[in-house]
Amino acid sequence: MTRSTDLAVETARGRLPVYFSRPEGEGPWPGVVVVHDILGMTHDLRRQADWLAGAGYLAAAPDLYSGERRSTCLIRMFRDARARRGRTFEDIDAVRTTLMSRPDCTGRIGVIGFCMGGGFALLLAADHRFDAASVNYGTASSDVYTEGTFERACPIVGSYGAQDRANRGTGDRLERILTAVGVDHDIRTYPEAGHAFLNDHDPADVPRLFAVLGRFAGGDDTFHEPSARDARERILAFFARHLRTSGDNGDASAGAESGSAS
């Protein structure tokens, strides 16, 4: 069972809306910041947070599109990703800090992202004080994939689809770099999965233009249940290893089998 609510986190630019989901009970629990894909705050994003809460984590999913038009936010976020700094990183760091300050949090915090959010999770793995990062078919510019970028990174679990044209070979490249710099990792590319295979979006949340562009850019972008189930099991096992301590409440394996975010 989980308890969810809409909260606001104070940032340098005002109040940032956050969907917050937590396990039942008193805690303390580790925290996870959930970074949305290009569609923003959707039913799927809330279900991802609920899935993590059901597995024993404080899950906070910020609406990084709040306060401006989506197109304006996208331009800003792409610019931030290229520069590796800016408002997007500051907002996510503010959510991490808020989680850490809660009395029901252990102080260990992970980050998980999907598609565009997966790219930010990858960039946040180094120098942003996260204890683990889950990168799900996140794209980044080619200059990111160097040993210098990841030599100070936290542990990374990454999941990709072999049918994803936008990420062809990305998993193998990341695997080689993390091995070379000695960062603990679990990287897997699923043969039958395409882009966004972990996201089971409601059709009403997907503008027609986005659906067309997604298929053009990444190939098959539909939810693939067998790959998603395995990826979730790996993510929970990885987070349990790096975010949990012996005194934590909750069961990290909870929902691993049935923990579909749908």
UniProtKB/TrEMBL annotation:
Its EC number is 3.1.-.-. It is an enzyme of class 3 (hydrolase). The keyword tRNA-binding does not apply. The keyword Lyase does not apply. It comes from the Bacteria. GO terms for molecular function: hydrolase activity. InterPro entries: AB_hydrolase_fold, Dienelactn_hydro, Dienelactone_hydrolase-like. Coiled coil: none annotated. Residues 18-242 form the Dienelactone hydrolase domain. Keywords: Hydrolase. This is Dienelactone hydrolase family protein. It comes from Pedococcus sp. KACC 23699.
